[in-house]
Design brief:
Elements lengths: L1 E6 L6 E2 L8 H11 L7 E6 L5 E5 L12 H13 L8 E3 L2 H4 L13 E3 H11 L2 H12 L2 H14 L22 H11 L6 H4 L3 E5 L5 E5 L4 H4 L3 E9 L3 E10 L2 E10 L2 H18 E7 L9 E4 L5 E2 L1 E3 L3 E6 L3 E2 L1 E7 L1 E3 L7 E9 L2 E10 L8 H11 L1
Helix pairs in contact: 2-5, 2-7, 4-5, 5-6
């Protein structure tokens, strides 16, 4: 049994319904509504929270993406670290293959040992090809095995128009992706908060075991040029042209933008700014509950050392959509009576946003503390108190 507590938000907070963007007519309508005319070959703008595409231009056109391939390389680094398969403190021995990589690099010394954390940082800041190969070999034993993992992860993410052949993005036959697929994998990467430890660093000294120092400079100029931009991955080859995947956050709303095949470096940055400007001007993410926010009503507990347990939101409850579209209400639904023991983090209810009878979004409400089962003496003490 559950009891329902209905809270109609004061001032009629906006709740947003959004339509699918799959049809050609919907896509064309959005392009016309935005008024944007891009010079780059393809582009996409999406909500990080929902994956909703807000603008697209040739988003499924297969193209080389240069160093944006490293987005997947970084994603696998962080996933392996989170899973405990590697540590940021791991010592990585650099192979001759790694040290001989061309293009952008950290100029690693073959046979020398580096911390995994430093190698990942050099990839995130300066797009170091040699560090990519070193981490690929450290994680999977070989670049070939690592690339296989990259393609497996792409399949998991629904990247239907992507094939990886290397872990760097250096030109190679048969490697391609799309603006939409890049958006998907970049949005997955930014779920890892450790990534943001590196992305806002503008310049850094990379100290080699020998004491030699290589200066690293962030390739993503938007972290200095655009308010709210805190991460991004550039790319350039003669074939791919100028590319950039970036993310920016304002007023609890995070957007992801991708430019593929820009005619020059300035255009890719300017067109990413245009995409962000369009998104922030026309969409918003309305916070209803924040992660860890306490619910006023407590849940009753039977057979426990305490008669009640407090609850909080397990995740943020935000609703994303076009500004000023619809009205709605926040509903809190708590369990009527849970039995002890209750562990901290146990689900004891739900919070969701409704538009009429339609549930638009929901999150779990979880116990903020552990309530142990009452023993004989606890029960006796309660009886005495009641008497």
């Amino acid at each position: 049994m559950k009891r329902k507590l209905l809270f109609v938000l004061s001032g009629m907070l906006a709740v947003f319904l959004f339509c699918g963007m799959n049809s050609a007519n919907a896509v064309e309508a959005k392009i016309q509504a935005s008024g944007m005319q891009l010079q780059s070959k393809s582009a996409v703008l999406m909500s990080s929270d929902t994956g909703e595409v807000l603008f697209e231009s040739n988003a499924d056109e297969r193209r080389p993406i240069a160093s944006m391939v490293k987005i997947m390389t970084l994603l696998l680094c962080f996933e392996n670290a989170d899973a405990g398969k590697i540590s940021y403190d791991d010592t990585v021995t650099v192979s001759q293959r790694s040290a001989s990589m061309g293009g952008s690099q950290a100029f690693l010394d073959a046979g020398s040992q580096y911390k995994a954390d430093d190698l990942i940082k050099s990839i995130a800041i300066a797009s170091a090809n040699d560090s990519c190969v070193a981490m690929a070999e450290h994680i999977s034993g070989s670049v070939e095995s690592f690339v296989e993992q990259m393609n497996n992860k792409a399949n998991q993410l629904g990247m239907e128009n992507t094939v990886f052949v290397n872990c760097t993005g250096l030109p190679v036959v048969g490697q391609f992706s799309t603006a939409r697929d890049v958006g998907k994998m970049f949005n997955e990467l930014i779920k890892h908060q450790d990534y943001f430890r590196y992305t806002k660093i503008w310049m850094d000294d990379f100290v080699h075991p020998s004491g030699r120092v290589t200066g690293l400079t962030n390739t993503n100029k938007l972290i200095r040029q655009y308010n709210g931009c805190d991460a991004g991955k550039t790319g350039y080859t003669a074939e791919a042209k100028h590319c950039l995947a970036a993310t920016a956050m304002r007023n609890d709303m995070r957007l992801v933008s991708v430019i593929v095949g820009g005619p020059d470096s300035s255009t890719r940055f300017n067109e990413n700014k245009m995409l962000f400007d369009y998104g922030f001007a026309n969409y918003q993410s309305k916070p209803f509950l924040k992660k860890g926010e306490k619910i006023n009503e407590e849940v009753s507990v039977s057979g426990g050392k305490s008669d009640t347990v407090k609850a909080e939101a397990e995740q943020n409850l935000n609703l994303f959509g076009k500004k000023g579209e619809q009205k709605g209400e926040l509903v809190i639904e708590l369990e009527k009576n849970v039995k002890a023991p209750v562990a901290k983090g146990d689900v004891v209810g739900k919070a969701y946003i409704k538009d009429g009878e339609t549930v638009l979004k929901e999150v779990n409400l979880v116990a903020t503390e552990t309530i142990e089962k009452a023993n004989y003496f606890d029960s006796l003490n309660n009886i005495i108190k009641q008497w």
